Amino acid sequence: MQGLDSAGDPLALFGGEASPVIAQLLHDAAAAYQHTSRAEAILWSAQAINPACLPVYFALYKFYFYKFRLADAEKVALMGLETAARQGGFASDWKQLSPLSVNWGLTDRPQHFYLFTLKALAFIRLRLGQHTDSLALLDKLQELDPGDSVGSSVIRDLATELI
User: Fold this and answer.
1) Among the four 9, 90, 91, 144, which has the fewest Cβ within 10 Å?
2) Taking a C-beta distance cutoff of 8 angstroms, is the pair 68, 38 a contact?
3) Nearest to 76 by CA among 91, 85, 65
4) Which regions of the chain are under pLDDT 50?
5) Domain locations in the chain as residue ranges
6) Within 13 Å, how many C-alpha atoms sit on residue 56's CB side?
7) Rounded to an integer, what distance in angstroms lies between the CA atom of residue 82 and that of residue 108?
8) Reported pTM
9) Rounded Cα distance, 85 and 57, in Å
10) Which pLDDT score, from 0 to 100, does residue 108 have?
11) Nearest to residue 26, comparing CAs of 2, 9, 50, 51?
């Protein structure tokens, strides 16, 4: 899981800073990854302690994706999008967004997490067989992130192969 390197040393968390308590919980969840219910409980504990912490949503949707629990991954990704939008001061509904909604080029801000999570949602929906939704998300990403800072073109290439 994200947050640790292979030696167990802390890495920068995707989505911003986390308090030491949350960072420790993410570390504990990574260590308990093979024990699904324990890792899941730890991650949700972290979310309950700090529901505004974006790295927790990243860890949760990634956890669910790798456990092949795609509906749960989708649910958490949507929660992460709402949280990032609230923090960034823009609409959470991706259909309402435009290149002028916010400065999408700032990589250390909630909008970058939003873009990355939108990419994750496109991939999740592609895996769920929701090809039309996935392509619509990828089109929006191309509009909002024409420089492809989050790498959505990789998902588009995969979608093109699968559809």
Assistant:
1) 9
2) no
3) 65
4) 1-12
5) 1-67, 70-163
6) 24
7) 17
8) 0.90
9) 13
10) 84
11) 2
Q: Which of 27, 98, 106, 100 is nearest to 59 (CA)?
A: 27
- Residue 61 and residue 66: Cα distance in Å, rounded? 9
Closest C-alpha to 157, from 143, 148, 144? 148
Query: Which candidate, 96, 57, 100, 98, places its Cα nearest to that of 79?
Result: 57
Tokens, residue 161: 């192969």
- H or E, element range at 122: helix 110-127
Task: Please name the amino acid found at residue 68.
Answer: F
Cα-based angle 103, 106, 107 (whole degrees, multiple of 5): 145
pLDDT value of position 16: 81
Residue 115 phi/psi, 5-degree rounding, is -60, -45
Other CB atoms within 10 A of residue 158 CB: 16
The pLDDT assigned to 13 comes to: 58
